[in-house]
Design a protein that fits this description.
single chain, four-stranded antiparallel sheet, two-stranded parallel ribbon, 49% helix, 15% strand
Length: 191
């Protein structure tokens, strides 16, 4: 119970305490932490993986439910620490992850670059593609519109400060099939 109470229930109760004020203001940011256990199970750590995956599910549910109210919910899953790179199993896992995210980045960049209303620079790091959409003046309103029309959630550029206005952020740390489906849904709106 200690692991679930710490990893999952802590995130749940904190969101529950903060959301009413965020809803009243029409703006808010929820950032949860999960770690690699949320994505990949490890021997002897089923309880940790389950609790971290619960936080992942909670965050996705909060993002979908509260995005129309101006509230974003995101999750950060830090990777292995440097010392783990010396473990052959972890080194192989890290290499596979780097390759997968590179392929995902290339897929997202190629698809977005082919959409007439989109302007973007090729991201070299992180898990995000930032892009501008011709004619968009309010990234929050546009993010809400895209969720309603396509079912695809993205972070509005304004969430990152005033200089981010006019931009959108798409996370490509997902399965390639999920990204392809999202891009298929976005293409009519961005063409």
């Amino acid at each position: 119970h200690r692991v679930i109470n710490t990893n999952f229930m802590g995130s749940f109760w904190l969101a529950r305490a903060c959301l009413p004020g965020m809803v009243d203001k029409g703006w808010g940011r929820i950032i949860n932490f999960a770690g690699m256990n949320a994505i990949h199970g490890y021997n002897g750590r089923a309880h940790v993986s389950a609790s971290k995956h619960a936080v992942w599910g909670l965050t996705k549910a909060l993002a979908k439910e509260f995005a129309p109210k101006g509230i974003t919910a995101n999750i950060i899953s830090p990777g292995p620490i440097e010392g783990e790179r010396n473990d052959p199993t972890m080194a192989a896992h890290i290499a596979e992850m780097v390759d997968r995210y590179r392929r995902n980045r290339d897929l997202v960049f190629q698809r977005l670059a082919g959409m007439p209303k989109v302007t973007l620079a090729r991201p070299e790091g992180a898990f995000y593609a930032f892009f501008a959409v011709a004619g968009m003046t309010d990234s929050v309103a546009y993010a809400k519109q895209l969720i309603a029309e396509t079912g695809v959630g993205m972070a509005p550029g304004r969430a990152f400060g005033e200089s981010g206005e006019g931009w959108m952020r798409l996370c490509f740390a997902a399965e390639a099939s999920t990204l392809s489906m999202a891009l298929d849904r976005l293409e009519p709106a961005l063409s």
